Amino acid sequence: MYIILAILLFGILIAAHEWGHFIAARLCGVTVHEFAIGMGPVIWKKKGKKGTQFSLRALPIGGFCALEGEEEESDDPHSVNNQGFWKKVFVFAAGAIMNFLVGVLILLILNSRAAGFTVPVISGTAPEFAAVNGQTLEAGDVIHSINGSRVYMTSDVELLLSLANREPIDLVVLRDGQQVELKQLPVREYTDSEGGTYEGYGLYRTVEVQKATLGLKLKYTWYNAVDFVRIVWYSLKMLATGSAGVSDLSGPVGIVSTINEVGTQSVSVGAALENIAYFGSMIAVNLAVMNLLPIPALDGGHILFLVVSTVSEKLFRRKVPMKYEAAVNMVFFALLMGLMLFVTFNDVHKLIVQQLER
Length: 358
Fold this sequence. Notes:
- The structure is a single chain.
- It contains nine helices and ten strands.
- A hairpin with a 5-residue loop joins β1 (32-47) and β2 (53-67).
- 52% of the residues lie in helices and 22% in strands.
- By secondary structure, it is an alpha+beta fold.
């Protein structure tokens, strides 16, 4: 059942993405030739009132919204290439915007049921803390940021401390509404709350629960969405620095497997649906961010070429011919498909190894 839900979730996110492009195109007066969910052979189609063909295709691995003038020059005044700069940006970015809004909507629905939200606070410090750091923290101090990165959710504390990689940290806490900053807290041997010793930052942490008001529900919905965006940034940074490799990536097979695992390990069907919905909101926000990266063959690549072409026209009175953009997009699309194939084989290999280990 959870595998079916995972596939349905992918379909919803793809449909939302393409629907964003479709709605933006219609609002800007751009002709839409086809709105398709899936790839490959057409298994169902219907002609709309304005000439758009709505279709469902055999392979549930994507979709598209075919616009007049998207891939080649067109003299049609209703083609996307004949629209103004900001209309083009809106049309190309609308898919990612819609994915982000879907993610936020899911979070809002989930948070509407919340009775309270946790806040990470300091419950105390190790006996050696003041001597080592020259100042101390007080019980009830709310953890605000670590190394300049805002703590939006309670789980951010562990994430940001792990990213510090045992290096000294700059910590900001809120005390009576005022920010208190402690710089360069080192990792060293401290006494824990039970009298033992451990290596760490000397902080004793707990959580406080704030009663969920409408304002807090809206605030934490936004915080959660921003947190998802930041996690994508951290992941990309880890890939760029070599802290993570391509083998650590997951594609559709890995995500479906994870969703199935999340569902089966939940204590009830209701809890499984909530957990899968939360995971789905994270995927939606991830898709929004990834699609806006300035990489050819992605929506962000279209916007990048649009900016380059506009600058070229202003400086040299010549646009970049669309045939060059089409050629570059084709090359990068092939590279992305190759990466997707590698990630898929890697996901399948991981599943096989997990099954053998069981």
